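Would you be willing to look carefully at the protein I have copied below?

:::
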Amino acid sequence: MDERYEREWFQNQCMRLSKQLAVVHMVPLPSKLSKDPLKNGLTIEDKIFYMRRAFQISQALVFNRFIELVLEKILLLSKKPEAVEDIARDSLELLHIFMEEYIDLVEQEYQWCK
C-alpha cells in the first residue's frame, strides 16, 4: 500500500466533495447586505448568511478531519495487523464522534434556514 498515494487521493477527493457541496449548499447573498456592518450592525439577513456559511465550513472541516483519522487507522492497520481489535474500537469511536458532530452542525444550520 502506497501511503503517500492514498493520502493524496483522499485529500483530492475531500477537496472535490467540498467544492461540490459548496455549490449544492450555496447560500444566496442577501438582497440587502449591510452597507457598513461595523457602523450600522448586521441585519438579520446578514446574520443568517454568515451563520449558515460558518456552519457549512465547519461541516466540511469535520468531514475532512474524519476522513483523515479513518485513513490513519487503516494505514496503521496495514502496518500492525495484530492490533486489529484496538484499531477497530478506535475507529468505531471516531465514527460515533463524527456522526454526532456532523449531525449537530447540520441541525444548527437548519435552524438558520427557518
